[in-house]
Amino acid sequence: TQVTEKLEEAVMIWIKQIKQVLVESEQMRREADDIGPSAELEHWKSRMSSFNSLLDEIKSSRVKKIISILQAARSKTLKQWKELDGNITIAANEAKDNVRYLYTLDKFFGPLAKASPVTMMEQVPSLMNTVCMIYCTSPYYNTSECMTSLLLKITNQMINTCKTYLCEG
């Protein structure tokens, strides 16, 4: 029972740390007002990396051994652990899926940042079709919050590109 208690204490510390990671990941992001759409992709790539690392740790043999010992001891901490394991898996899948969809927009980000206003406008229909495809097919990124954030960043980039064009001309 002493071993079980020590292992439960370790798992409770992990649970507290994982809950903190999940809470921080759900908090509102603070971003500059004029940030472009490539920042959205970078955000989700970073989040994917964090959650994949966390998943790798949870799936490690050391953690699996501790969890199996606690299962054999019928520990009550496992209910919380399993719930958090599921939440981490969902967050990792969301980040991976969002990166996959946002990569379809990546080809537009360069021209959007460097083009003249006329060339940029030629890209807009294809860009909007791709955004529409993401909205219609993504299981995670099709919320009004995500779409608003993305469209705001696209608009910011277009405005910045036009400002640069005007200042150079």
From TrEMBL:
Query: Any one Gene Ontology biological process term?
Result: microtubule-based movement
Please give the Pfam families that the UniProt record associates with this protein.
DHC_N1
Q: Which domain of life is it from?
A: Eukaryota
Q: What GO cellular component entries does it have?
A: axonemal dynein complex
Residue span, Dynein heavy chain tail domain: 5-167
Listed transmembrane segments: none
Q: Which GO terms describe its molecular function?
A: dynein intermediate chain binding; dynein light intermediate chain binding
Known PANTHER family for this protein?
CYTOPLASMIC DYNEIN 1 HEAVY CHAIN 1, MALE FERTILITY FACTOR KL5
Q: What protein am I looking at?
A: DYH5 protein
Organism equals Rissa tridactyla
